Amino acid sequence: MKYFWIQLLLILGSVSMALMFIRTWSQAKNRAWKRIAFSVFVVVNVYAVLRPTDVTWLAQQLGVGRGTDLVLYVMVMAMGFLTLNTFLRFRSLEKKITDLARTVAISEGLRHNDARLGQDAAAPAAAVAAAATVPEPGPAADSDSDSASDSVKA
């Protein structure tokens, strides 16, 4: 009964995190292993709050000493994972935004040329531009033109 209020607070915090995660379950674009890992994290967290002596025993078995030190080390590793995951996600989004901006710029350039030159004069120019960006099929196509056409695709 001595630790009831702090245990209740910590368990309510874990349950509220789980509820927020479940509430946005359909919106979350996480892989299945991330969902499973988060669920395991919540269950282990509730267990550790209810049985802190078991965490200390596990820490001693692993050679850490105290349960709080073990929890700290695990949280540092989790923070490193989250930081790396966020960095990789932002880098992927930046690449997608760059590809989208290139596609919009090319489309706007073609539209601007159509308006400036007129539809009849712009049609051959657009066909020449399209033919220049699409590599010929076969062994003569080099890898640089393939990567350039891939970066233009949305």
For the secondary structure, the number of strands is 0
Please state the oligomeric state of the protein chains shown: single chain
H/E element sequence: HHHHHH
Uncertain segments of ≥5 residues (pLDDT<50)? 140-154
Give the C-alpha Rg.
Answer: 28 Å
Helical fraction equals over 70%
Q: Could you explain how this protein is built, in words?
A:
With 154 residues, the chain is mainly alpha-helical. The protein has helices spanning 4-23, 32-50, 52-62, 67-117, 119-133, 143-152. The longest helix has 51 residues, at 67-117. It is elongated and about 85 Å long. Residues 140-154 have low confidence and may be disordered.
Helix-strand layout with pairing:
Elements: H1 4-23, H2 32-50, H3 52-62, H4 67-117, H5 119-133, H6 143-152
Helix pairs in contact: 1-2, 2-3, 3-4, 4-5
Brief description of this entry?
The chain is mainly alpha-helical.
Question: Which features does this protein show?
Answer:
mainly alpha, elongated, 154 residues, 0% strand
